[in-house]
Amino acid sequence: MKTGLFALVAVSLLQLTASQPRAHRHHHPARQVVVTNVNYVTVYDVVTRTLYGDPASAAAPPPPPASSPSYAPLPSSSPAASPSAPSGPGSPGPSRMGITYTPKKKDGGCKTQDQINSDFEQISSYGIVRIYDTGCNQVSMVLSAAKSKGVKLFVGIPDLSQVTSDVRTIIDAAKNDWDSIHTVAVGNELIHKNSASADAIVGALDVARGLLKGAGYTGSVVTVDTVRSHQENPQLCARSDYCAINCHAFFDPHADAAGAGKFVDMQSKTIANAHPDKRIMITESGWPSAGSSHDNAVPSVANQQAAIASLKSQFSGDLILFSAFNEPYKKDDAYTHGVERFWGILGDSNH
């Protein structure tokens, strides 16, 4: 019976969307694939249900996103402090600062275990390392490197096209030892990129959580999106174990590098005020070292250093910096100001 249920989940989710690019792209529109219908089985209560009705009757997809994320205006006085972290199974654990990491070579190829281990010699001072995908056997290899350094792993499922198989990859890599998995994220900015509906994302969260729970994982399962996406779709936070938010001061034309920490903190409080029972984690924030200016937001090495210092000063934890190394294989479009390759806090990787 369990085998049959897992197969049903696999068939249903593999039909969710057309194949989407799985490489992480940063804050710009992606090919529009809107998911409106999900049939699934929740493994933990064995209830079969159809969530979202007939695709033919679904509402039209939203228009493409603006050229950069929209942020709430900063209030003239500081709102109440963010709530303290809840305890229990839904909590991501002690507050720690992290960094994002993509185990790809300069040409976009997959790194080896030795190369990943070498990278961890540079990034192991961070308590959490976030990865975005399951390709290149990265969950298993990055998890091995993380365990050797006592680092927690924030694992990403990039889209909804392969949720079941991606969860199985994570389960296989963990080998019944979940101590080093901090969070599993289903989707990254899918609302912002118009890649899926909020209802479809919530359905996929339930599927992933059920499969992971059945494998012994009791940690956090979330979906990650921008501030505006969370404001307009409160169910993303409500159904996640905590609110996971990507927020970059650079994409607000009025922000400057030295004020990046204050800007991100104030934005996070707009979500905290709407979800007072939820922990808030900034899952991406950084500043590019090169590219074109975005009005007052100017990319440079000096400004990147100022922005990172500001973020570290403002946050004692619940912050994941973007990113460890430059990613020269990435491509820019009209909305990214020529900065896609230049977010690496540590500059270029050695590999």
* Rg over alpha carbons: 19 Å
Q: What is the helix tally? A: 9
Please state how the strands of the largest beta sheet are arranged side by side: 3-4-5-6-7-8-9-10
Mean pLDDT: 81
The profile of the biggest β sheet is: 8 strands, parallel, barrel
Helical content band: 25-40%
State the end-to-end CA separation: 46 Å
Shape category: globular
Strands, count? 10
Uncertain runs: 1-21, 27-67, 74-95
Portion in strands? 5-15%
Compressed to H and E, one letter per element, the order equals HEEEHEHEHEHEHHEHEHE
Structural class: alpha/beta
Summarize the structure.
The chain is of the alpha/beta class and about 350 residues long. The protein has nine helices and ten strands.
How is this structure best described in words?
The structure is a single chain. The chain has about 350 residues and is an alpha/beta fold. Helices cover about 30% and strands about 15% of the residues. It is built from nine helices and ten strands. It has helices spanning about 1-15, 115-125, 140-150, 165-175, 200-215, 225-230, 235-240, 260-275, 300-315; strands at about 40, 45-50, 95-100, 130, 150-155, 180-190, 220-225, 245, 280-285, 320. Helix 4 (about 165-175) runs parallel beside helix 5 (about 200-215). It starts with a helix and ends in a 29-residue tail after the last strand. Mean pLDDT is about 80; it is low at about 1-20, about 25-65 and about 75-95.
